[in-house]
């Protein structure tokens, strides 16, 4: 387990407006596990990877929506 100075769990929950339970449901960990890791600051590599993948997925979904909107705009303009 790596010491996380920024506390990725707390930071992620705050930025996304999620509880530990909600974040846990999204990344496959229990609320108790995330609470323990957040309170001690000792975040396992697997939790760190899961959170980073979740954040990347959110970002990619936003980009996909933007590309879909652009596609619709281009289609409408070309009619």
Automatic annotation (TrEMBL):
InterPro entries: Lambda_DNA-bd_dom_sf
Domain of life where this protein originates: Bacteria
GO molecular function, one term: DNA binding
Record protein name field: XRE family transcriptional regulator
